[in-house]
Amino acid sequence: MMRKKTAYAVDEIVARMVLPAVNRVGEKATELAKAGAPPTKLWQTMEDARVRPEHRRANQQVVPENLRFTVKSHPWDMEHRGLGEFTYLLEPRDESSGAVVNLKNCRCWPVIDPDGVADLVSWEEAQVTGKRVRGLVVADGNLVVQAERGDIYPGGLVCDGTWFMAKAAAEAAVMLRTGAL
Question: What is the tens place of the pLDDT at every residue in 124-155?
């Protein structure tokens, strides 16, 4: 028996046919990821002569809201509280960190940016390469992976992940399966 080759690359034709659907799913997943992305927070000091050196170094540090700021530990906290070189704070005056001196009389505050991580999410439009269609929803920036999956800090301090990318992908997949996209 003899096989006959078709004149057309059927796989590539099918890939081009599904390209618009892949772009719709990717755009929707991007929209959902942006909506679920955590805010960021910025460490803000009074920026005056009374700001302690450890906090002056932390000034303007930006982290996703579910994570901790990294502040140089005060020598007393290291010697008497058993802290390492750094103290990990959810916000200024965070007692869960185990610090004492780094918290006392602190006048710092967090500044929240609701679109912080969402601004790092983007869609790279789908492209056909041979018989494959590939598009990417990307979240690219400092601490984005930790915002997604969470992090564990020295001293057993745990920050849960937000799973904003995973949730967006799952929700877009359900919408595709149910015909909502």
Answer: 999 998 888 898 999 999 899 999 999 999 98
Decide if 95 contacts 69 (C-beta within 8 A): no
Q: What gap in Å lies between CA 75 and CA 130, rounded to an integer?
A: 61
* CA dist list (Å): 35 to 51, 128, 130, 159: 36, 28, 33, 20
Contact between 88 and 157 under an 8 Å Cβ cutoff? The reply is yes
The percentage of the chain sitting over the pLDDT mark of 90, rounded to a whole number, equals 75
Q: Could you tell me which residues are beta bridge partners of residue 110?
A: 43
pLDDT in tens, 45-62: 999 999 999 999 999 999
pLDDT at 53: 92
Alpha helices (H) along the chain: 10-36, 53-58, 75-81, 144-149, 164-177
DSSP letter (8 states) at residue 37: P
Tokens of 12: 């590539």
At 97 the three-state DSSP class reads helix
